[in-house]
Amino acid sequence: MTTENPTLFSHQLITKGDLVEFKNNLIAEIKEIINHNPEPKKWLKSSEVKKLLKISPGTLQNLRVNGTLNYTKIGSIIYYNYNDIQKLLEIN
Asked: Domain Helix-turn-helix spans what residues (predicted)?
C-alpha cells in the first residue's frame, strides 16, 4: 500500500473570469511590444537600406550615382543617413 501525497494531486479551478483576465493581460503585453518603437539608428549600412527599401544592390547603387540618395563612405563601408531615406520616401 502506498501513501499518496495530497499536494501532488491538488487541483485548481480556472474560472471564465480568470481566462478573460489572462487574455486581457496578454493582449496588453502584445500591444506594448508592437507599439514600442525604438529610435532608429542615425546611420544605416547598405544592407540595412536595401532591406528597408526592399531594393536590389544595383538600384541602391543607381540612387547613389544619380545623387538621389546621399551617402558617406568611411573606408570601404558606405553609410546612409536615416533622415535622408525618410525624405526620399516622402518625396516619392
From this structure: 43-90
